[in-house]
Amino acid sequence: MRINYYYSTSAIIIFNDEFELKIDDSLDNIVCKIEWAFREYGFTKAEVIDSKTGELLVTVDDDNFSDEEEDEDFEPDYDECGFNPYMGCYDYDC
Fold first, then answer.
1. Within a domain: residue 28?
2. Which three-class secondary structure state does DSSP give residue 47?
3. Which of 5, 21, 33, 42 is the most exposed place for a label (fewest CB within 10 A)?
4. Which domain holds residue 55?
Protein backbone atom coordinates (compact mmCIF):
# COMPACT_ATOMS: atom_id res chain seq x y z
CA MET A 1 0.00 0.00 0.00
CA ARG A 2 1.32 3.45 -0.88
CA ILE A 3 0.28 6.50 1.13
CA ASN A 4 0.58 9.94 -0.47
CA TYR A 5 1.37 12.92 1.78
CA TYR A 6 0.58 16.26 0.16
CA TYR A 7 1.63 18.36 3.15
CA SER A 8 4.24 20.77 1.81
CA THR A 9 6.93 21.98 4.15
CA SER A 10 10.44 23.23 4.57
CA ALA A 11 12.21 20.30 6.18
CA ILE A 12 15.58 19.02 7.26
CA ILE A 13 16.44 15.40 6.47
CA ILE A 14 19.00 13.80 8.77
CA PHE A 15 20.57 10.64 7.32
CA ASN A 16 22.18 8.14 9.73
CA ASP A 17 22.39 10.85 12.44
CA GLU A 18 25.28 12.41 10.48
CA PHE A 19 24.36 14.06 7.18
CA GLU A 20 21.78 16.89 7.02
CA LEU A 21 19.93 18.13 3.96
CA LYS A 22 17.48 21.06 3.88
CA ILE A 23 14.66 20.69 1.37
CA ASP A 24 11.42 22.50 0.45
CA ASP A 25 8.92 20.03 -1.00
CA SER A 26 5.83 17.97 -0.25
CA LEU A 27 6.21 15.20 2.30
CA ASP A 28 5.42 12.60 -0.37
CA ASN A 29 8.28 13.80 -2.59
CA ILE A 30 10.61 13.96 0.40
CA VAL A 31 9.95 10.28 1.18
CA CYS A 32 10.60 9.41 -2.50
CA LYS A 33 13.92 11.27 -2.34
CA ILE A 34 14.82 9.41 0.87
CA GLU A 35 14.12 6.10 -0.87
CA TRP A 36 16.40 7.17 -3.75
CA ALA A 37 19.16 8.19 -1.32
CA PHE A 38 18.90 4.82 0.45
CA ARG A 39 19.47 3.02 -2.84
CA GLU A 40 22.18 5.33 -4.18
CA TYR A 41 24.22 6.05 -1.06
CA GLY A 42 23.43 3.13 1.26
CA PHE A 43 21.83 5.11 4.09
CA THR A 44 19.91 3.02 6.62
CA LYS A 45 18.01 5.66 8.61
CA ALA A 46 16.46 9.06 7.94
CA GLU A 47 14.49 11.53 10.01
CA VAL A 48 12.45 14.38 8.54
CA ILE A 49 12.18 17.41 10.82
CA ASP A 50 10.07 20.50 10.09
CA SER A 51 12.58 23.35 9.91
CA LYS A 52 10.05 25.93 11.18
CA THR A 53 8.68 24.10 14.22
CA GLY A 54 11.36 21.48 14.93
CA GLU A 55 8.69 18.78 14.90
CA LEU A 56 9.68 15.26 13.85
CA LEU A 57 7.47 14.48 10.84
CA VAL A 58 8.70 11.10 9.59
CA THR A 59 11.21 8.48 10.65
CA VAL A 60 12.26 6.09 7.89
CA ASP A 61 14.61 3.11 8.00
CA ASP A 62 15.65 0.67 5.33
CA ASP A 63 13.00 -1.86 6.45
CA ASN A 64 10.30 0.47 5.06
CA PHE A 65 11.42 -0.15 1.49
CA SER A 66 11.19 -3.66 0.07
CA ASP A 67 12.92 -4.88 -3.05
CA GLU A 68 10.58 -5.54 -5.96
CA GLU A 69 12.44 -8.73 -6.83
CA GLU A 70 11.30 -10.42 -3.62
CA ASP A 71 7.65 -10.25 -4.70
CA GLU A 72 8.14 -11.91 -8.08
CA ASP A 73 7.50 -15.58 -8.74
CA PHE A 74 10.43 -17.06 -10.62
CA GLU A 75 9.15 -20.65 -10.77
CA PRO A 76 7.77 -21.97 -14.06
CA ASP A 77 3.99 -21.83 -14.39
CA TYR A 78 3.60 -25.49 -15.35
CA ASP A 79 4.21 -26.49 -11.71
CA GLU A 80 1.19 -24.49 -10.63
CA CYS A 81 -1.22 -25.76 -13.30
CA GLY A 82 -3.55 -28.57 -12.35
CA PHE A 83 -6.81 -30.21 -13.35
CA ASN A 84 -9.82 -28.39 -11.96
CA PRO A 85 -12.73 -30.84 -11.72
CA TYR A 86 -15.29 -28.04 -11.38
CA MET A 87 -14.19 -26.42 -14.64
CA GLY A 88 -13.38 -29.68 -16.40
CA CYS A 89 -10.03 -28.37 -17.63
CA TYR A 90 -6.54 -27.44 -16.49
CA ASP A 91 -6.05 -24.05 -14.83
CA TYR A 92 -3.94 -22.26 -12.22
CA ASP A 93 -6.56 -22.33 -9.48
CA CYS A 94 -5.81 -25.82 -8.15
1. yes
2. strand
3. 42
4. 8-65
Residue 82 lies in a domain: no
**Cβ neighbours of residue 58 under 8 Å, at least 6 residues apart?**
27, 30, 31, 46, 47, 48
Tens digits of residue pLDDT in 12-65: 899 998 888 898 888 778 888 888 888 888 888 999 888 888 888 888 887 766
Compute the distance between CA of residue 94 and CA of residue 88 in angstroms, rounded to an integer: 12
Residue 58 lies in a domain: yes
pLDDT of residue 15: 92
CB environment 66-78: b (16+ within 10 A), e (fewer) = eeeeeeeeeeeee
Whether 76 maps to a domain, the answer reads no
For the chain, counts of helices (H) and of strands (E): 1, 6
pLDDT value at residue 31: 82
For the chain, the domain total comes to 1
**Which stretch of DSSP H or E encloses residue 9?**
strand 8-15
